[in-house]
Amino acid sequence: MPGLLETGIEAHDRVLPKGIPRNTMMILAGELGTGKSVLMGELFYNILKKRKEPCIYVNFEGPPIAVEQDMEAFGWDITPYLESGQLKFLDCFSFRMEPTQVSPYVHYVKDPRDLHSVTSALFSIMEEMKMLGRGAVFVDSLTEMFTLVQEDRPLIFNMLDGVKSWRAKGPKEKLVPFFCSHHTPLRAYADLDDLLFYVVDGILDIRFNPGFADRGLLVKQFRVRKMKGAPHETYWVTFSVTSKGVTEVPLPVPVLSTEKPRTSKKK
Ligand SMILES: Nc1ncnc2c1ncn2[C@@H]1O[C@H](COP(=O)(O)OP(=O)(O)OP(=O)(O)O)[C@@H](O)[C@H]1O
Ligand SMILES: [Mg+2]
Predict the structure, then answer these.
(1) Domain 4-248's class?
(2) Which residues contact 37 (CB under 8 A, 6 or more apart)?
(3) Fewest C-beta in 10 Å: which of 32, 133, 145, 250?
(4) Who contacts 92 (Cβ-Cβ below 8 Å, separation ≥6)?
(5) Which residues line the pocket of ligand 1, CB cutoff 6 A?
(6) How many angstroms separate the CA atoms of 97 and 76, rounded?
(7) Is the peptide bond before 231 cis (omega within 30 degrees of 0)?
(8) Helices 153-167 & 115-128 angle (0-180, nearest 10)
(9) For residue 168, what is the DSSP state?
(10) What are the start-end ranges of the H helices in 168-258?
(11) So where are the chain's domains?
(12) Ligand 1, closest atom to CA 206?
């Protein structure tokens, strides 16, 4: 048995009562703005703080400072973990700005379009941080990684192959789970999504409840679609992002209009 990792997020642990197997490559899949990054942020803060295990954050969507600031908004201060070396960033965003000053807590990737350079940096940092059967890797987001190679489909499929080797070398060989966010549904990647979802061990779907969305209300929900090797519930959990992070809330009661129906006046 690979051992299990509890996330420390109450609603999440309830649908995965024994935790997530450490040999899991997991995708957090959902539309824009559903809360993928917040959920990942809370997950990695809990692993750092409550479990005292090492984490690597592979940032494709913004610079490390933006991740730090987003975390601060919830009162999650990651600076001590960066300073102690328990947390490292693998920066796959800042190549756009060619940074002159690189922080010691950040490993900067010059050309993340070359996935080999990302992979070799990632696994040498994991080695340095002695991540074997402990800690986790976070990738935000695979979508942004795929878009780096634009419409070049062979290169995109090469990247999918890269994700397969991450799964083999990380979760399977080192028992270090990977949590990757991915925007869905993007029509450009529909066939890729099928393959990706087939390859990974776990999928957490995150959505706006479609019934409420039709009425203009954005109600966030997540559910475990797939999880190999651990018991799990598959119902939709309704949640809200509050100042404390991800909080389970009841499904809102639809508000019925109190307005009287208009009657047409005859002239
Ligand atoms: N500090 C905060 N306080 C309150 N709510 C927040 C805060 N940060 C984020 N949210 C809520 O979470 C929502 C989405 O957050 P998040 O960035 O995690 O989405 P995402 O799924 O990662 O989006 P994207 O696909 O654009 O990366 C925001 O639209 C907002 O409702
Ligand atoms: Mg995001």
Answers:
(1) alpha beta
(2) 61, 70, 140, 141, 181
(3) 250
(4) 58, 59, 60, 109, 112, 118, 145
(5) 30, 32-38, 73-74, 183, 241
(6) 27
(7) no
(8) 20
(9) I
(10) 173-174, 190-199, 210-213
(11) 4-248
(12) 21
Q: Which atom of ligand 1 is nearest the CA belonging to 40?
A: 18
For residue 36, count CB atoms less than 10 angstroms from its CB and return exposed for 0-12, middle for 13-18, buried for 19 or more. Answer: buried
The token pair that represents 230 in the structure block = 């651990």
* Separation between Cα atoms, residue 71 and residue 140, nearest integer Å: 14
- What's residue 264's pLDDT? 52
Whole-number Cα distances in Å, 50 to 45, 53, 56, 87, 177: 8, 8, 16, 14, 17
Q: d(Cα 243, Cα 73) in Å, to the nearest integer?
A: 7
Tell whether the model's pLDDT for residue 106 goes beyond 60. Answer: yes
Q: Give the C-alpha separation, 44 to 46, whole Å.
A: 5
The letter for the amino acid at 88 is K
Q: State yes or no: pLDDT of 215 exceeds 50.
A: yes
CA dihedral 53, 59, 65, 71 (to 10 degrees): -50
117: tokens are 């350079």
Give the number of residues written for the chain. 267
Work out the number of other CB atoms within 10 angstroms of the CB of residue 236.
17
The whole-number average pLDDT for the span 30-57 is 96
Q: Is the pLDDT of residue 262 over 70?
A: no
Q: State residue 267's pLDDT score.
A: 45
The answer to whether 81 and 73 are in contact (CB under 8 A) is: no
Q: For 147-168, how does the pLDDT look when each residue is reduced to its tens digit (9 = 90+)?
A: 898 777 888 888 899 999 999 9
